[in-house]
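Supplementary Text 2. Reproducibility record for the structural model of the 302-residue chain.

All settings were left at their defaults, and a single model was retained for analysis rather than an ensemble. We include the record here because the model underlies the residue-level annotations in Supplementary Table 4.
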Amino acid sequence: MKENIPDFLYQMLLNEYGENLTNKIIEGSFENRPTTFRVNTLKADIKQIEDKLNDLRIEFRRVPWNETAFIIDNVKENEIRELDMYKNGEIYLQSLSSMLPPIILNPKEGDNILDMAAAPGGKTTQMASMSNNKAMITACEKNKIRAERLKYNLEKQGTSRVTVMLKDARRLDDFFSFDKILLDAPCSGSGTLNFNNDNIEKIFSKELVDRSIKTQKELIRKAVKVLKVNGELIYSTCSILKEENERVVEEILKMGSMEIIPIDSKFFENVPLLPVSIEGTICVCPSELYEGFFVTKLKKIK
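Retained model, structure tokens:
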């Protein structure tokens, strides 16, 4: 089962989760997941998309914890990309796991929100849609090419109150002040690895994990600085390694200005979860529907 898995990763998983859960993670990471998308309610309503899918004889399932999310059973992603509803920005192709952070952040009309690592824009456009284009969103992206892709997606999805900053969020001036921050941090991607890939060791390494941890700690420290008192911060990664998740959060909690807002896992019906070492955080287990993903919600108390 573990032929394609780097030895260091296997040992890390074994140390963190034990043999049974490690085997479950590995099984989930071999799955070829179906196409999933969410309806962009700035341009279409859910019933319209349902009707269009039915007319096209595209089989779909709904997701209990997100009324805008669809699982497609008989059509591949490249075929969805050819549909007018995709080309017009009425839907956005997005993994189910990556829809979790904006839902947990719960953007509202009038919120001043920072998206610290925004490209390609899935979560940014999701927040704009959830707030009816009435939240003010600042979206940071340090890479010029990725920033252009972000702008393209924002325009295609019909967002009107998002400002793109071509800037490394770690270098933001401390005089900025936000009500809510989404830090979907750059990470090793350990939760999204496909173990069918024979070249995993070329894209995944211990050096990548260590480099990601350094960046994550720098970003979350900056997030705390530019978050208002009583403001809320989502820290998320597509990693299942505690070094990139709970350990980073623990370091911030030790500073004394942040506290955990517990996430009610009962809300996320049927989402497979791994055990966590910080109560109130969630870590999604790779499965036939879900990528591995970690989310925590924090509040600034002083």
